[in-house]
Design brief:
The structure is a single chain. With 152 residues, the protein is mainly α. The protein has two domains: 10-80; 96-146. The chain has helices at 10-21, 27-38, 50-57, 61-74, 76-80, 96-107, 119-128, 137-146. Helix 3 (50-57) packs across helix 4, helix 6 crosses helix 7 (119-128) and helix 7 crosses helix 8. It is rod-shaped, with a radius of gyration of 28 Å.
Length: 152
Amino acid sequence: MQKYHVNLSKEERKKIKMVLRSKRVSMEAKKHSQILLDIDESDGKAPLRASVVSVRRGVCSNTVNRVRRTYAEFGIERAIFRKKRETPPVEPKITGEVEAHIIATACSAAPEGKTRWTLSMIANKIILDGVIENISDEAVRLVLKKHNLNLI
């Protein structure tokens, strides 16, 4: 006996068929849609067992059970598509302001006694100026490369 049941309405079936026809939807979403159609109980016939669906769709039986549970608990959107991220990714340390300071330093005259700036000298100068707390030579190199600047 199944703990979670999938009874698709006409609107939900229509949405699933749109997902299956769409070219902009991931294969994962299409597989989840097909699984939902296979385990649907709304048309009166018995749904396919998880083991049969898993072989038919090329997924693990745990995936079938997870899709069934997610549909029952959260609805069709969440059963087909991935959960949206609640917190944004980590903010980048190197902002436009930091990039501007790196570029300005690299384009300025080299310090006294030196013929040109090195990556570590630029990184140290940016830290001493209080623009950023810490930065690696590699990060400085990537900023300069991004803007097609060469230290030669």
